[in-house]
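Reviewer 2 asked us to include a model.

Predict the structure of this chain.
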Amino acid sequence: MLGLAGADATAPPDAHRLEEAPVSVPSRPDAPLPRPRGRSGRRGAVVAALTAASLAGLMSGPAHAGGGGDGPHGPVDPELRRGLQALVDTPGGPPGAIAVLTAGGRSEVYRAGTSQLGTGRPPRTTDHMRIASTAKAFSGSVALQLAERGALGLDDTLGRRLPRLPAAWHRVTLRQLLNHTSGLPDYTEAPAFIAELTADPRRRFDSRRLLDYVAGDPLRFEPGSAYRYSNSDNIAVALMAEAATGRRYEQLLAELVYRPLGLGDTSLPQGYRLPEPYLHGYVVDPPNAPEDVSTVLGASGVWASGGIVSTPRDLGAFIRGYAGGLGLGPEVRRQQLSFVEGSSEPAGPGRNRAGLAVFSYTTRCGTVYGHTGNFPGYTQFAAGTKDGKRSLTVSLASQVNSSTNPRLLARLRELQEGFVCRLLDRRKPGTAH
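Predicted model (structure tokens):
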């Protein structure tokens, strides 16, 4: 699966349309399932960024919009194109960025910068990348489809499904895990986890034992009484899904998510390598030169909370399905879209509220549903419309959040809102103003 790929030719300076086959999303399921490299100082900085910022949520070339093997050219919004370029050109900005808007089988692709410094190669819709905490929406999709099939209940408790976990956690429900009201302590903040990751960023963790790092810690609050984003939540969600079905989480992803949506370039690796071609991720810390950290960290330590690798094209197809209620009947769908106050990490555009492994982003132009995420070298935003017909992904080749660069995050959120407005325009992406 992994290999070497040469640099691709530079794309023409314009955005384009992608011709895509429509995604088939069944309204209901058929049947229930059976039960690195680099300087040590920089490495330490990267790990610190991971534990303190990324997992709390999970030299630039010219702009290249369109072409690059993605498809024919098409019209774009020049203001959004300039905005994405300005974000890349900002001191401390990402070396590369790509935004994809899709509606009615057609896509607009906006890009700036490069997918790899020194190559001039623009970011592409088929570049692999770490999607960080947007992976939590994938675990949500698995859990909600199992709830639809009756294999799991939203009120099932950790005590029922995972009795080996601490007795103090047993009353936490699947619903509370999915909307981050569980009170579970976050394993990524545990001193032992941080120490082991710092000592070996590529360490191969036992992903199914990550909660052991906080097994001796009390709940942060009474389950259901407050909102607090925790990476432990989605680890527990995946473990509950495994316990309910007797299948590995990776198998459930393939059966319930990848195959129905045709996600051929999406995977959940355990190691640090990325499939070729990939969008290279960087630590940007002026006046130091950007440092490629794409493969500095292994994925086993984030697993169901943030370890998925995908592409802009696959991520858009996923979020159209998930925002549109992939495989869910009306009752589970209603509960998926029941919201409490709470922001994704990093915050997305507009007002953020938390549903079941999905956030609503209410902007000046309307509301979309999705998730954000970040990881050293990457920042992600994926959102779709409630009818599942339109999607937006915005992917940056550096980590931007309230800890690493709050000013740039504010600019990013404004730009994301502009893309949401374009997405929700009555004209489909790919048609002229």
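The mean pLDDT is 86. The radius of gyration is 20 Å. We have added this to the supplementary material.
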